[in-house]
Amino acid sequence: MKKIIVPLDFSEQSENALKVAVSLAEKHGAEILALHMLELNQAMITSSEGFHPEQTVFLIKLAEKRFKEFLQKPYLEGVKVTPIIKHYKVFSEVNEIAAEHNAELIVMGSHGSDGLEEIFIGSNAEKVVRNAEIPVLVIKNEIPDFKIDRFVFASDFREESTAAFQKAKAFAEMLKANLDLVYINTP
User: Fold this and answer.
1) 41: domain CATH number?
2) What pLDDT score does 117 carry?
3) Could you write out the DSSP letters of every residue in 64-124?
4) Do 121 and 154 fall into the same domain?
5) What are phi and psi for residue 55, nearest 5 degrees?
6) Tens-digit pLDDT profile for residues 131-141
7) Host domain of residue 48
8) Judgement on whether residues 86 and 101 belong to the same structural domain of the protein
9) Are residues 153 and 71 in the same domain?
10) pTM of the model
11) Burial, 33: exposed, middle or buried (Cβ in 10 Å; 0-12, 13-18, 19+)?
């Protein structure tokens, strides 16, 4: 494993994910791509009505400063961290970054949406998991001494699942983890 993407939103959950990514990076000599996606939309950036360009620049600079400060953690010492800031919150960009940098894993925190918000919007982690072209590890709580001993590949084992299974198998071998197979019966 050479590169790990960690989406960060300055929350406790994203810091928990960052700590797990650091643990994996140290074990595998990997680089962390720390990704922060600003929630600016195109209208905000280009609009001449109601929102001034200097306000947009101020928000961008403020986020960049906060991001830089967030990445000054003692547990990051000795780990190569490359900060990446995107100005929109478009989840397809995570795949683009993964492809551009040849990343092999996404580690992200999850707050866990519930109720109507989850039904209609879904969580950010869910959006990344559903659209990611590389494995995604979702972390909710702090996990001291994180290690992967085993993980589960859930499938209906149709022929079109073969490529995904091969990737899961290779990933398990890279991590020296046991791969458990679970058959999902979807009548």
Assistant:
1) 3.40.50.620
2) 47
3) HHHHHHHT--GGGTTS-EEEEEESS--THHHHHHHHHHT--EEEEE-----HHHHHHT--H
4) no
5) -70, -40
6) 888 999 999 89
7) 3-144
8) yes
9) no
10) 0.82
11) buried
Q: Which two tokens stand for residue 53?
A: 């360009």
SS3 21: helix
Residue with tokens 């109601």: 50
In tens, the pLDDT along 161-187 reads: 999 899 899 989 988 899 999 999 987
Q: What is the DSSP letter of 29?
A: T
Site of tokens 């947009």 = 56
- Domain shared by 152 and 124, yes or no: no
Residues 99 and 30 in one domain: yes
Encoded tokens for 19: 């700590």
Tokens (6 digits) for 43: 């209208």
DSSP 8-state class, residue 34: E
Structural domains counted in the chain? 2
**What is the DSSP annotation of 152-176?**
EEEE---GGGHHHHHHHHHHHHHHT
Which segments of the chain have a pLDDT < 70?
39-52, 88-90, 112-122
